[in-house]
Amino acid sequence: MGSTRGARTKPMGAVADAVAMPKSSTHRLLGEMARLGLDFDSLGNIPIDERAPMVATRCAVFAKTDLSHLQQEGHTYQALYNGLCKGLVMSGLKSVFGGSIPKGKDLLLSGGLLANPHIRH
């Protein structure tokens, strides 16, 4: 899998800066998907849930801890997967853009991870 890339654009569309998200982010998602018992074929059947609880994905230990606690609280695997994707996007964007998430529509992302509708959303 390739890396996911991000760029901020200036008002006339010129690229202001561009960076790549580490491949480790993709590996974290794949590892946690396996722990939830999910495979790529089942992802299309999981509805996008904007109310899903956020899962910390900065490191695998935090993700495992969050997933365990959220499972104990009774969240479904669908909600956990949505929260995992949400956490991955947030930590990935912060990593790519130096700790802050750019606001507005002047953001361009590309990469294989964006083929996942839960990441793209």
What would you note in describing this structure?
- By secondary structure, the chain is an alpha+beta fold.
- It has one domain: 2-Layer Sandwich (Nucleotidyltransferase, domain 5).
- It is 45% helix and 14% strand.
- It is built from 5 helices and 3 strands; from the N terminus they run E-E-H-H-H-H-E-H.
- It has a 3-stranded antiparallel sheet with strand order 2-1-3.
Short description:
The protein is α+β, with helices and mostly antiparallel strands and 121 residues long.
Please describe the structure with a list of short key phrases separated by commas or semicolons.
Nucleotidyltransferase, domain 5, 3-stranded antiparallel beta sheet, 45% helix, alpha+beta, 121 residues, globular
* Corresponding CATH architecture: 2-Layer Sandwich
What's the number of extended β-strand segments?
3
By CATH, the superfamily comes out as ATPase, nucleotide binding domain
State the end-to-end distance.
20 Å
Rounded Rg: 15 Å
Which whole number gives the mean pLDDT?
75
Q: Give the DSSP E fraction (strand runs of 2 or more residues).
A: 5-15%
CATH fold name = Nucleotidyltransferase, domain 5
Write the layout of secondary structure elements.
Elements: E1 4-9, E2 15-21, H1 23-35, H2 40-43, H3 60-72, H4 77-96, E3 107-110, H5 117-120
Antiparallel strand pairs: 1-2, 1-3
Helix pairs in contact: 1-4
